Each structure stands twice: as structure tokens, then as C-alpha cells.
């Protein structure tokens, strides 16, 4: 995944700073407090409001609209196994995150730990691709337009961090960012496979879609690990802008 995928870091930076800071007009949620008994419920409402307004952006904190999102590079490289391939998704448009429903938030501010559960009705990635390798022992290669859609995704994001002092203020440095995703269905369309051989390309696309569960099962660890690494790196950029005391004024 490329450096332009900063959507999720913006989400967490905006989420924690806006729910904790003074209320702002229109699309910013009500403040939450770390020691409140209803902290998790408050964060669910705040997170839901953030997702809802991703298509508009957050001018108050300098964040542009984030759905749709342009992603310059997303690389998925799997090793040995039934599915072994190098897949790069290039200059792609990601759509659908603003339609997410936040189902639960479990926060432990004193431990710098957060867990967010959400569902996405549809998440679409459309752009260009390069691929080489094998799928269920069948060779695959090509480059061209791609269209990948995840339907009814159940996702869990787990964040862990540690305190870091800067200018006499406490900031958060993320040490772990685990991602788990479980789609109900994945559909794939890769044009121009096998140097434009339509028969082979149509056959491979049909095979991938008919066997999407096994294909995704094999790719799931590398997909989640790729997201985890980039999200932790970019999440730290966001957390570096807002002190923990600003996020939770009663800490």
C-alpha cells in the first residue's frame, strides 16, 4: 500500500481529537470524557458521525473529503501456498467507507488501547493493476484496469499505544494496529489478463469469482498485515498532531 493511503490515520486523529475537544459546528461530534461510564457509547456515536461526514471532509481540522479516496499504490504479496502472487493495485479509487456502521467501541484510555468494530455494506477499489503468480495452481499474469468489490464487510480494528512526551505534553505512539476483515462476498474483475487473451482472461475471472472464498482465505493474512503496517505508520502521524490531553481532557 502506498503513502497516499492516509484515510485511516485521519480517521483516528479526527475521531479522538474531535470527540474530546470543544464542540464545533455541523459535523463534529459531542465531546467524550475518559472517566465517563458511557465512554464507549459516546465514542460509538462520535465515530459514526465521523464516518457519515467522510464524504464532506473536516475543514475545521484540515482534513479533505475521504470518500472516495485516491490511493497511489496498494501491494499484496503472498508467499507459497495455493494462492501465491504479487498483486499491485495502482492509482485506485476507494469508495464506501463513509457508509460504515460503527457497531461497538471498547476504549481503555489509561492503557492506550482501543477496539473499533464496524460493518461496511460495500467497499469498492477501482484502478489499474499488475499481477503475477498462481491461484490454485493456475498461473496468472497481466496488467490493466481492475474492479474489486467487498460486500457486507465485518471489520475489527485494535490499536495499542504508549505515551510519548513532547514539549511537556503527552502524545500517543502506536505500537500495534491489528486489522481483521470478514466480507460476505468478494467480486473481482481484472481486464487484460494474459496479454489481452480474452478467453483465458474470462476463464480466470470466472474462476476467481466462483472460488472467491478460498482465494480470500489464502490472501486474508497478507491483506490484514498490509493494512496493519500502513495504518500503524499513518496513525502515528495523526496522533503526533494531537496531545492525549486534548483527546481526553480529564486524563
UniProtKB/TrEMBL annotation:
InterPro entries reported for this sequence: Haemolymph_juvenile_hormone-bd, To_sf
The keyword Signal is annotated on this UniProt entry: yes
Domain of life: Eukaryota
Keyword annotations: Biological rhythms, Signal
Pfam families: JHBP
Keyword Signal carried by entry: yes
GO cellular component: extracellular space
Signal peptide segment: 1-21
Coiled coil: none
Alphabetical GO biological process terms: circadian rhythm
Family per similarity comment: Belongs to the TO family.
PANTHER family named among the record's database cross-references: BCDNA.GH05536-RELATED, PROTEIN TAKEOUT-LIKE PROTEIN
Protein name: Uncharacterized protein
Protein species of origin: Laodelphax striatellus
Amino acid at each position: 500500500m502506498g503513502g497516499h493511503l492516509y484515510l485511516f490515520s485521519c480517521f483516528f486523529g479526527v475521531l479522538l481529537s474531535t470527540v474530546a475537544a470543544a464542540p464545533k459546528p455541523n459535523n463534529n461530534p459531542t465531546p467524550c470524557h475518559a472517566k465517563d461510564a458511557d465512554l464507549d457509547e459516546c465514542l460509538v456515536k462520535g465515530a459514526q458521525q465521523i464516518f457519515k461526514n467522510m464524504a464532506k471532509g473536516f475543514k475545521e481540522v484540515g482534513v479533505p473529503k475521504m470518500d472516495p479516496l485516491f490511493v497511489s499504490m496498494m501491494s499484496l504479496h503472498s508467499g507459497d501456498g495455493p494462492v501465491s502472487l504479487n498483486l499491485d493495485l495502482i492509482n485506485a479509487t476507494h469508495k464506501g467507507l463513509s457508509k460504515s456502521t460503527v457497531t461497538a467501541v471498547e476504549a481503555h484510555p489509561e492503557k492506550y488501547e482501543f477496539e473499533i468494530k464496524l460493518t461496511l455494506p460495500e467497499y469498492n477499489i477501482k484502478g489499474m493493476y499488475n499481477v503475477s503468480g498462481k491461484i490454485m495452481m493456475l498461473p496468472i499474469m497481466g496488467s490493466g484496469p481492475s474492479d474489486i468489490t467487498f460486500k457486507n464487510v465485518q471489520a475489527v480494528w485494535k490499536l495499542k499505544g504508549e505515551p510519548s512526551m513532547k514539549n511537556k505534553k503527552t502524545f500517543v505512539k502506536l505500537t500495534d494496529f491489528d486489522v481483521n476483515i470478514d466480507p460476505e462476498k468478494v467480486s473481482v474483475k481484472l481486464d487484460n489478463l494474459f496479454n489481452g487473451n480474452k478467453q483465458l482472461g474470462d476463464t480466470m475471472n470466472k474462476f476467481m469469482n466462483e472460488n472467491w472464498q478460498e482465494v480470500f482465505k489464502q490472501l486474508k493474512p497478507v491483506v490484514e498485515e498490509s493494512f496493519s503496517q500502513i495504518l500503524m505508520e499513518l496513525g502515528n502521524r495523526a496522533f503526533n498532531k494531537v496531545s492525549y490531553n486534548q483527546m481526553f481532557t480529564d486524563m
